[in-house]
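During the reporting period the student researcher (J.K.) took over the structure-prediction task from the postdoctoral fellow and processed the backlog of single-chain submissions. One of the processed entries is reproduced below for the supervisory committee.
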Amino acid sequence: MAAYLEAALEGADGDASFVAKALGDIARAKGMSHIARDTGLSRESLYKALSGQRSPDFATILKVVSALGLRLHANTRQQAPAVTRVRAVRERSPKRSR
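J.K. obtained the following structure tokens:
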């Protein structure tokens, strides 16, 4: 679940409905009735909110994430791994004298 949501967050490119759809996929896999009970929201409203057709309220997202047993956390943006490796190799290589 966490890896799927992480991939959706990274691939969303600012599209909140894309993330909501991913949460909907996870919620359906866990059982929408169970998630509805844990969030205090109706199944129907969850299906609509997590359909990917619209962007749900952030409060709904937080409730669903919590009901799924997940946590959201923030990290700083990092450079692409390949760029980081190239820089690390360059920094470790002895400098050539001219």
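The committee noted the following: Residues 82 and 88 are 10 Å apart (CA to CA).
J.K. will present the remaining backlog at the next meeting.
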